Amino acid sequence: MEHNDISVGLDIGTTKIVAMIGRKNEHGKIEMLGMGKAKSLGVHRGVVNNITQTIQSIQQAVDEAVAVSGININDAVVGIAGQHIRSIQHSDYISRANSEEVISADDITLLERQVYKLVMLPGEEIIHVLPQDFKVDGQAEITEPIGMYGGRLEANFHLVVGQVSSIRNIGRCVKSAGLGLAGITLEPLASAEAVLSEEEKEAGVVLIDIGGGTTDLAIFKNGIIRHTAVVPFGGNVITEDIKEGCSIIEKQAELLKTKFGSAWPGENKDNEIVSIPGLRGRDPKEITLKNLSKIIHARVVEIIEQVFSEIKGYGYDEPKKKLIAGIVLTGGGSQLKHIKQLVEYITGMDTRIGYPNEHLASGSDESLSSPQYATAVGLLMNGLRDVEVRQEREKVAQRINAIRAEEQLADEKKEEKVEEIIREKKVIRKPFFEKWSDKFRDFLDNAE
């Protein structure tokens, strides 16, 4: 049975690996057909450090999703993050041969291709080339140059750069787990897709995705992504601190954090105590909740301050760069009690917790709208958008073939009609990361 309207999002995180299978219903919402998750054993701070274990975890998550949905899957949209990701601003231009013709999507693609050829540091590669705004013959602040006349087309770009070897390793794991790469996208972009509204992106907003191993950040203003960063700390370091500070094992530390943890020490009374069973034959340990939240508070403050310095670096206090919608927290770490209040206290910015439920069909499993699944939902959304673009392209191709097959029409007339369709459908440009994924897939195939 052909399932050409479904897609799969695969979030390879430091703590867990999630596979989501879904499709769009008639209202344009996501109908979740199956989800599987597995403990992530071979990933450290968003980077694969044990290929065999990562392959096993991916297979486990995928098998579970397949078992629930009863649908066999061939490929997935995969997210990449990790401490090796950095972003830079760059501007570039092309001189057009014929300024009598209007600027088309092909001109923009040409300009983007030119940017991809930039020389990076050894071992680095450009993952995303995101146009910010354009200049046509010196006229600045143009958001959509298609259809304008001009000889010189210039653009400011936001480039996301990452280590080739780290990305290759993820590709290798996915392939070895028996899946093709339907696309690759940056995890903070995927999370943003799932939890931010268009109004927020327009007004100016910071997305902070606190994962197990890393905290990802994406800043939007005027509907365009302006800055991305990955801070190499997440929920795992908080657990690690509790483990060391209270001399207990990791499993107990994680449980303490999620059940009793708070990012605000003032909340707990001095006499609130949790008793933890001791290791074989030893006495139980007594831990005060006040001490627990002091440990958590110290580490969370450190993470937020690093994120805040990225926001300051972007220049959020300049009038044109004002982030009116404040901060949206998502990811598993955003479920920590009182973290919203702490973020507001440190940054002075309005904060809300982002849930990916807006895009899910009504009647979806409650647990899927938890912030910890924001990235997976966003990756699935990316995949479903690609499916729509592909279907649209196929329809266009069929229309063109039908015109060319018409016997009554003169060849000249046929080509005119074909040109018209192509002009009308110029909007079906490949999403920015799809071009890179195509290149990356070829690269993986050749590396066999």
Verbal overview:
The chain contains twelve helices and 18 strands. It is of the alpha+beta class. The protein has a domain of 65 residues: 2-Layer Sandwich (Nucleotidyltransferase, domain 5), CATH 3.30.420.40. Strands 3-2-1-6-11 form a five-stranded mixed beta sheet. α4 packs across α10, α8 packs across α9 and α10 packs antiparallel against α11. The relative contact order is 0.14.
Brief characterization of the structure:
This protein is an alpha+beta fold.
Mean pLDDT value: 88
Strand order of the largest sheet: 3-2-1-6-11
The total beta strand count reads 18
CATH top level assignment of the domain at 235-299: Alpha Beta
Summarize the topology:
Elements: E1 6-12, E2 16-24, E3 30-39, E4 43-44, E5 47-48, H1 51-69, E6 75-80, E7 86-95, H2 105-116, E8 124-136, E9 139-142, E10 152-163, H3 164-176, E11 180-186, H4 187-195, H5 198-203, E12 205-210, E13 215-221, E14 224-231, H6 235-246, H7 250-260, E15 273-276, E16 285-288, H8 289-314, E17 327-330, H9 339-347, E18 351-353, H10 374-405, H11 411-424, H12 432-446
Parallel strand pairs: 1-6, 6-11, 12-17, 17-18
Antiparallel strand pairs: 1-2, 2-3, 4-5, 7-10, 8-9, 8-10, 12-13, 13-14, 15-16
Helix pairs in contact: 1-3, 4-10, 6-7, 6-8, 8-9, 10-11
